[in-house]
């Protein structure tokens, strides 16, 4: 029978989701834990890939398990997994749904703090910027749903079949103190390092190093800049994955530390 596992992980220690020899990765840790508990080799299929040090506050993988277990797998699995990986739900599925190919929308959040804070280190990206032009950054973000080809914001556009991404929403938020930013974007798919590249460009716009017109020129003309500097990985979260048959609310606690208190509300800019 096929099962979907609803999970989350803090990616600081990991070289991304995907299983690779010789490096610590989230997929490998999960497969090892499941194989140990079920006493049979287990291979899992994730809903996507995350880069090294990138987090997921909502992630799904599927696995086919032939014989039903006779113990509390949910409890045992959470017990043996490290503290930076959690299982939220184990969901039996009918037929052969696919965790990766069936997803119709993915959402990401990117968090920035502009002051050095040891309690945000690893959870958010530090950019000690004091005079970012938020209005211009907001204008650039508003352009994203108007375009569908993100060739200019892909690390390796020539290695994939196409660079079309249908962005359904994109927003920039700021906390009441003006010290923390949050970039949120949803689309049917994302390209290699696309969100980190976009965030890097938005910071350039905020500093006055790139104009909004230049940003739109790259979008419209599908022209990849000669120099691409992605934003740091630590601030990026895969935060929502939606299927036609499965739409589970996210666990909002993932950003509690970034909000700093329950009274803090992100304000659209």
Report on the structure:
With 269 residues, this protein is of the alpha+beta class. It has 2 domains: 2-93, Pseudouridine synthase I, catalytic domain, N-terminal subdomain (Alpha-Beta Plaits, 2-Layer Sandwich); 107-242, 2-Layer Sandwich (Alpha-Beta Plaits), CATH 3.30.70.660. The protein is 22% helix and 24% strand. It has helices at residues 26-38, 73-80, 134-143, 194-207, 212-221, 256-259, and strands at 2-9, 45-46, 55-64, 85-93, 105-113, 125-126, 167-174, 180-187, 236-242, 267-268. Strands 1, 2, 3, 4, 5, 6, 7, 8, 9 and 10 form a 10-stranded mixed beta sheet that branches. A hairpin with a 5-residue loop joins strand 7 and strand 8. The mean pLDDT is 92.
Give me some keywords for this one.
Alpha-Beta Plaits, 10-stranded mixed beta sheet, alpha+beta, 22% helix, 2 domains
The CATH homology group name of the largest domain: Pseudouridine synthase I, catalytic domain, C-terminal subdomain
Radius of gyration: 19 Å
Q: Which CATH C-level class of the largest domain is it? A: Alpha Beta
Q: Please report the number of helical segments.
A: 6
Q: How would you characterize the largest beta sheet?
A: 10 strands, mixed
In the CATH hierarchy, the third-tier topology of the largest domain is known as Alpha-Beta Plaits
The end-to-end distance, rounded to whole angstroms, is: 47 Å
The chain-level mean pLDDT equals 92
Number of domains: 2
The beta-strand count equals 10
Helix share of residues?
10-25%
* Secondary structure category: alpha+beta
Global shape? globular
